[in-house]
Amino acid sequence: MHFKRPGWGKTLGAIGMSLGLILVLAFIVLPLLWMLLMSFKSRTDVMAIPPKIVFTPTLVNYQRLFFGTQKAGYDAVPSDFPRAMVNTIIIAGGATLLSVITGTLAAYALARLHFKGRDFMAFSVLSFRFSPALSIILPVYAIYRRLGLYNTHIGLILIYQTISLPLIIWVVRSYIESIPVDLEQAALVDGYSWWGAFTRILLPLIAPGLAATSVLAFVFCWNNFTFGLLLGAAETHTLTVATSAFVSYEQVLWGVMAAASIVTILPAMVFIFLVQRWLIRGLTFGAVKA
Amino acid sequence: MIRRWLPYYLTLPSFIVPTALTFAWILGLYYSLTDFDLRYGIRNYLGLGNYADLITRSPAFWGSVATTLKYSILAVGLSTPIGFAVAMLLSQLTGLKTRLIRTIMMAPLCISPVVATIMWRIIMGPTQGLLNYGLNLVGLPKLDWLGNPGIALWSLVIIDLWLSVPFVTLIFYGGLQSLPKTPYEAAQVDGASRFFTFRKLTLPLMKPFLMIALLFRAADALNAFDTIYASTKGGPMRATYMLNIYAYDNVIRWKQLGYGLAIMVVTYLIVYAVSKRLMAFWPR
Fold it and tell me: Do B103 and A284 count as a contact with CB atoms less than 8 A apart?
């Protein structure tokens, strides 16, 4: 029993579909474009009503971000944005590196070896992804203040492990599981040690996935806000904290804020674009293998 | 003999930090039973005093529980069906168009929630914001998106949708791509209607992906902090005052670490109960 749809119904459906998609895409893209435009506007153009689409672009906001001064009490001090950038690179880079080294070994053990408490270990590290960040940060805040880890790069790198480590362990584990174990067993028969089989056979095979997952871990660390806000101060402020600091009660520097946001977004966007094929698997911790 | 201990040698380095943090968390559990004040330290052990106070006396607690739940239900309840619909639309397309749209949809996934919130503050600005200009163009009155207690929570939901719809869409899109072809061919041969195929075939097959999406979304919505902190900080008139903000205020503003941690323990239990329920569907 075949039911033929009338032609106009199909056309109407297609129009509705395209319209829906266009709406969703506009919802996603327009705010971004608007902010990009705003970052190139002068102070008067930013406040113009009706909003200006055509204007003379200026780099004044970016200039102010990197070379300008900001108020600290009654003094004018150099903008702390460049330092925030360096801080973020150190913290996100350090956290990712540490997680990649320790997490890959753990992922190998969790994927290939059978031992007591394996599932418990895997799920306990995953639970960091689902528990409220503040329930970990607040006690750590009290402990860090006592230990002198508050407002240090090391302290932040350690706490950022809660972002990068579950990701590395779970996703790399799922990569290892997707590779047949026979290859390694053959290597073991040929006289390789487990280490030799791991580094010479398995690592080259999972290298692309591992690299992509590291990039993802770096971006997640880069984007984090709460840890830097609560466990860091002026010396260790991250980009996200610095960007949010352009909103204060006495003045909102819309143009500079937009420029800061663009600078914060850009590296993450480039990175994600490079690894987009691996994105879904990373975001769902290996649960969706599309 | 080395084989026997190998798993533990390999996992140990990566578990040092999580173990330490778990101890910190347990210490936090203990702190929540005391009157830990960041200025004076612990003076008294209160037992369940903080919790009793929260439940019986704190005027902000039940309000923030209600706001947290309301926000989470709205955010998850809207992003999941919208994401599903967009994924269905996307899977009908082929070739270059799909790849282009997918790439565009990835943008919000790599943007920090705080930065996205700042972006929306620019768009939702009461005088010069783009959104109000748009309302003005079609002859509607301007709205104070984040300053009006009646709509501030909805504005937060809009910000959340911008961040989460692409995430949900890509999960469902991945799921739809992985569905087996044969049942669909059989359904077509039997002349099943599109609605019937969707209800009896697509939905059941997509259940694991639905659960994954719900698991991540529910946890993220219940734990929402960045977006609220960067926009309303719980205001106006506590219209967006959620559990995380309440705990933050107690600890950072009023120095009441013990009390703030009691709030976080309650939040943790809520998230744990929801996640545990959904975790049962984690595909192995």
Answer: no
In B127-186, the residues whose Cβ lies within 8 Å of chain A are 127-128, 130, 133, 162, 165-167, 170-171, 173-175, 177-178
Nearest CB neighbour to A132, from listed B114, B209, B267: B267
* Beta strands in chain A, from DSSP E residues, in sequence order: 69-72, 75-78
* Residues contacting residue B82 through CB under 8 Å, at least 6 positions apart: A24, B161, B165, B168
Please give the residue of chain A at the shortest CA–CA distance from B247.
A134
Q: What is the pLDDT along chain A (290 residues), one digit of tens a residue?
A: 454 555 677 788 778 888 888 999 999 999 999 999 999 988 888 877 777 778 888 888 898 888 877 665 556 667 788 999 999 999 999 999 999 999 999 999 999 888 888 888 888 898 898 999 999 999 999 999 999 999 999 999 999 999 999 999 999 999 999 999 998 889 989 888 889 989 998 999 999 999 999 999 999 999 999 999 999 988 899 999 988 887 665 566 788 889 999 999 999 999 988 888 888 888 888 888 76
Q: How is domain A81-283 classified at the architecture level of CATH?
A: Orthogonal Bundle (1.10)
The pTM of the full predicted model, rounded to 2 decimals, is 0.91
* Structure ipTM: 0.91
Rounded to 10 degrees, the C-alpha dihedral A177/A180/A185/A186 comes to -150
Select from A29, A38, A134 the residue whose CB has the most chain B CBs within 10 Å, as the one to mutate to test that interface.
Answer: A134
Query: Is there a contact between A135 and B104 if contact means CB atoms under 8 Å apart?
Result: no
Spatial contact of B58 and B259, defined as CB atoms under 8 Å apart: no
CATH of the domain at B251: 1.10.3720.10
